[in-house]
Design goal:
The protein is an alpha+beta fold. The chain contains 6 helices and 15 strands. Bound molecules: arginine. Arginine binds next to strand 14.
């Protein structure tokens, strides 16, 4: 846990976020909360909470095809019992960081109705499958789930989890974590790449194949204005996207997936208001803030 600051907000967010604070935050908070839900529940809300994108805008959104051949560390989280056989039961993304460990977002493993960790006995990590309509690669059972003890579903802080694979994946490429406390990869304007099987249009169109898109890092001060009332916490979050024109972003279903700079895992798809909107960039878990905590689980 070295280097990881346990803040009062993180520890007390659940209790402090009750009625009064919740009501004051009003619609923005609701929008942000809905945007943070994994895809099946959020899918119905996307159309209404996301203004139509202008025609011809780039759309994960704005991306192109990607492949687990080139990105062998890119994995899907699937639960066929909960999400059906369609698209292999995919509901989130993740990153293989060692032959037995996958880093993803904590909120991927939460049940939004109970606000508690979800019960998904058939949770699988799907490796080597770019096209979810195929049986390529394999579906690996999960033997252990670690969720950051400071994770708060209300504040979206410390949105990270580590899954242990029941069957090791030696020889499959892994993506190293950024160093604890690193700042260079987060400098505004640095171009990062985000990967996932999430919504490609912001209106519930989920692709069968993996996509990726390049997104510039956004300054913390800018993002704090984009998400006022303290929704954006630079201590554990970082923003990336097209601040002024929108059009490139992660979206529902991409959660937990990697944001990559220079061959390192620097962010995890966490939340955002709508998708690819100007002035509402994607918000990612800042991996440099919790790299040591994650390494403690490897
Ligand atoms: N929370 C969403 C999910 O569970 C990801 C939302 C990301 N939104 C964004 N605009 N980048 O899939």
């Amino acid at each position: 846990m070295a280097g990881k600051r346990r803040t009062a907000e993180a520890a007390g967010a659940g209790a402090a976020g009750t009625a009064g604070a919740g009501l004051r935050r009003g619609r923005r908070a609701l929008l942000v909360l809905l945007a943070a839900l994994p895809l099946p529940v959020a899918a119905g809300t996307v159309a209404s909470s996301t203004p139509a994108l202008a025609q011809g805008q780039l759309r994960i959104i704005g991306g192109t095809g990607a492949s687990t051949q080139q990105e062998p560390w890119m994995v899907a989280l699937g639960s066929r019992s909960v999400y059906g056989d369609y698209r292999s039961g995919q509901f989130c993304g993740g990153t293989l960081v060692s032959p037995t460990k996958v880093v993803t977002a904590a909120h991927c493993l939460y049940d939004e109705s109970t606000m508690r960790p979800a019960d998904r006995p058939d949770l699988k990590v799907i490796v080597g499958r770019s096209d979810l309509s195929t049986s390529a690669g394999s579906e690996v059972a999960v033997s252990q789930v670690w969720i950051d003890p400071d994770y708060s579903m209300r504040s979206n802080m410390w949105d990270v989890a580590v899954l242990t694979l029941a069957v090791p994946q030696p020889g499959r490429g892994v993506l190293p974590l950024v160093d604890q406390g690193a700042t260079a990869p987060y400098r505004a304007g640095t171009v990062a790449t985000v990967f996932g099987w999430g919504d490609t249009r912001g209106n519930g169109q989920y692709p069968m194949t993996l996509h990726s898109v390049q997104v510039p890092m956004i300054a913390d001060s800018t993002c704090a204005q984009d998400y006022p009332d303290g929704a954006f916490r630079a201590s554990t979050m970082v923003c990336a996207g097209e601040q002024n024109q929108g059009g490139r972003d992660a979206c529902q279903g991409d959660s937990g997936g990697p944001l990559v700079v220079a061959g390192r895992l620097v962010g995890l798809v966490s939340w955002g208001a709508g998708c690819a909107e100007a002035g509402h960039p994607g918000v990612y878990t800042r991996v440099a803030a919790l790299a040591d905590a994650v390494r403690g689980q490897l």
